[in-house]
Design brief:
single chain; 615 residues; alpha/beta; five-stranded mixed sheet; four-stranded mixed sheet; 27 strands; disordered N terminus; disordered C terminus
Amino acid sequence: MSYLRHSIFNFSTLVELLQYRAIHEPQKPAYTFLVDGETEEVSITYQKLEQRAREIAAHLQLLGFRGERVLLIYQPGLEYIVAFFACLYAGLVAVPVYPPRFNKPMPRLQAIVADAQAKIALTTTSILTNVEQKFEQSPYLATLQWLATDTITSDSINKWQQPQICDSTLAFLQYTSGSTGTPKGVMISHGNLLHNLALIRQCFEHKHDSQGVIWLPPFHDMGLIGGILQPLYSGFPVTLMSPTTFVKKPFRWLQAISRYKATTSGGPDFAYDLCVRQITPEQRATLDLSSWDIAFTGAEPVRAQTLERFTATFESCGFRKEAFYPCYGMAETTLIVSGGLKTEPPIILQVKGTALEQNQVVAATGNQESNRAIVGCGRTWLDQKIAIVDPESLTLRPAGQIGEIWVSGSSIAQGYWNRPIETEQTFYAYLADTNEGPFLRTGDLGFLQDGELFVTGRLKDLIIISGRNHYPQDIEQTVEQCHSALRLGHGAAFSLDIFGEEKLVIAQEVERQNYVRKLNADEVIKAILQAVSEEHDIQVYAVLLLKAGSIPKTSSGKIRRSACRAGFVDGSLDVVMDWSMNHQHKTKFQSLNTEVETLLQQLQNEAQHRKSNIK
């Protein structure tokens, strides 16, 4: 396999990798988990991890399971990591899932159980107690064989048998976050993992003396592969904390980086923005971030403004802009596709927004409001290849034009579990003019410039109004910044076909304190209409102001625009107030006042005036 040429070890499976660490560095701490997100620590060494994985694996083998899909239902912590490796040691296919909230419906978990055809679930005694109380309301849970791994002893460890696995054997199913559709189980092999881990190690220049701090969900690709498996592969320790502890108090993340002298840590764009907004000057005064030389950012659009604000806020703590490491990847590519050079600052390209609307890339001059700053996501590494392709003709796009991002290489997953048609369509694409392939069709839009990848949006989310392309994340950013009552990172822009014409709809959460008290809805609507018209020259058809925490998101925190669109149509969104041009939607409070309707008329007149000038 090609990944072996790039690997620092001659391993074909993760089982062999962990065995190597346990033999050669038995007492070295592998993982430390901060129970409270701050000072309460629990740790496990390579030797203890390997031993505990064999104990559970032996028990699973004695139960007669071979090649089954196994649900892993745990809170973040060491028990989850042990259970993941136990599945590999037993020759089973791990299926990580987010721990269910037992006071809410669990449609995602139900869908995964059915799709994976899982027969067994591993968990802890405390979670199992809650699960058993839900058997009557959720009968699909009762069909599983449940096993609390914290009750398994070492009695059977000597009966463990080395599984008959190789590089092509499935290691786990990574269920996609479902930002544009129903989650699908991506089949990740041991070979896929080892190749991508080698790629990450080369990108990040990890060494034995590196130190990680990770708060990312361990049930998702970035948290599992980047946060848990990469330290094991490169042989350095990592300190983990629950995502909940970070979100409740973002200072805990940077405090841990400072305390453990972390060299590698990161997360999506929203995490850096949250730190800027919530960490106080007094807290900043206690931080030393000078050790942090890889601040990776990915999983959602990387905003130049966020990078600048974070750097300006925390440079007094020793943070350097060169530490930022924008990267691009997805579950279908195991994890990472592209990344830059560790020692160089992010590449930020200023382009004309009007040209982007026509799928053209034109460098901007001056400081026009329509200009856009796009952050580069690096280049390909090892045997990975990126092609920018016309999604209609399936031919290569010329340089300087936007197209769909296609990827090939040894990190490309094996396909979607039990979905042969979708696997063929997504994982086996060929260029129509040269027949080169197979490529993975990512569904993302972007372009290459001097080898650097710039991602501009999602193909399915692209908004086309009056023949012009608009990226929803640009409109969402405009909306969330137009009024203080709106929550950052909690809005969706999407289009609807209204009598044969595409119209723009905005769904945006408001800060909780604003609707708990008195929300000045008229003022907020006026600000949204005016900002979108001025920045994007689009007339908004409808606006929905939503309760905090209610907008549909994926398990990894991405906005589910398709679900927002469906919720708008069927009226299932948790609306504080809504409004539309034709007033067919009634508000829960009061309709817009005369001032706002006058503004709307003004915007319509201005739009007509601009069109006449163009003609």
